[in-house]
Design brief:
Blueprint (H helix, E strand, L loop, with lengths): L4 E2 L3 E2 L6 E6 L6 E2 L7 E2 L2 E2 L10 E2 L7 E7 L2 E7 L4 E4 L18 E5 L6 H4 E5 L2 E2 L18 E4 L13 E4 L1 E5 L5 H15 L2
Antiparallel strand pairs: 1-2, 3-16, 4-6, 5-8, 7-10, 8-9, 9-15, 10-14, 11-12, 12-13
Length: 196
């Protein structure tokens, strides 16, 4: 097993249907290009061909690229009042609170074929399934009319609340539900790369 590879030797980059991939390990995906630590970023570029680039708002109050943060790599720091938006079709919100200074893996899995809310929407924190409470019924399909995805801000409902204060190092989104082997492969990739 090598970093960045899942069981079977297929690179994570080779997973079908990756629609968004933000990776702070390489400064090549930021504007301004190759920022030094502490630089406010004006864009976090998507590594996929879809180009769902995240563009921070807020004038001079933008997230910062900070390096090194974890395992020698950089990350994007959100100060609790700034955020970034990317044009993307997605579904729902989820919230996790981590009151420590460690990096964590947070995974949200949507599967519209599930029979119950708990089968349709799952949240994993450091690879461990979490208990969720639901209001109403989770749809069987994603909201195709949603046009924005927010990093560092919970924009649901449309009132600005829930700003993130901390680092985001990597975001991977697929347009389909990953199977158990793929989930394990992504988890192994992130654990190895970020020394989690």
């Amino acid at each position: 097993f090598h970093a960045g590879r899942r069981p079977g030797g297929i690179p994570v980059a080779g997973l079908p249907n990756i629609s968004v991939w933000y990776d702070a390990a390489s400064t090549a995906y930021f504007s301004p290009g190759n920022p030094s630590s502490g630089t406010n970023i004006t864009q976090w570029s998507d590594k996929t061909a879809a180009s769902h680039n995240a563009n921070p708002t807020g004038g001079s109050n933008k997230p910062s690229y900070i390096a090194p943060v974890d395992n020698g790599y950089g990350a994007v720091y959100f100060n609790g009042t700034n955020w970034a938006v990317a044009t993307y079709t997605g579904v729902g919100t989820s919230t996790v609170t981590a009151d420590d200074t460690k990096f964590h893996m947070i995974g949200r899995i949507f599967d519209g074929t599930g029979a119950t809310n708990a089968d349709r929407l799952k949240l994993r924190y450091d690879g461990i399934q979490q208990s969720l409470s639901f209001t109403g019924t989770i749809n069987t399909t994603t909201n195709a009319t949603q046009s924005n995805m927010y990093l560092g801000w919970d924009n649901y409902p449309a009132t600005p609340t829930g700003y993130w204060k901390g680092y985001i190092a990597e975001v991977i989104i697929l347009t389909r539900t990953a199977n158990a082997l793929e989930i394990q492969g992504i988890k192994n990739y992130l654990k190895t790369k970020w020394a989690l």
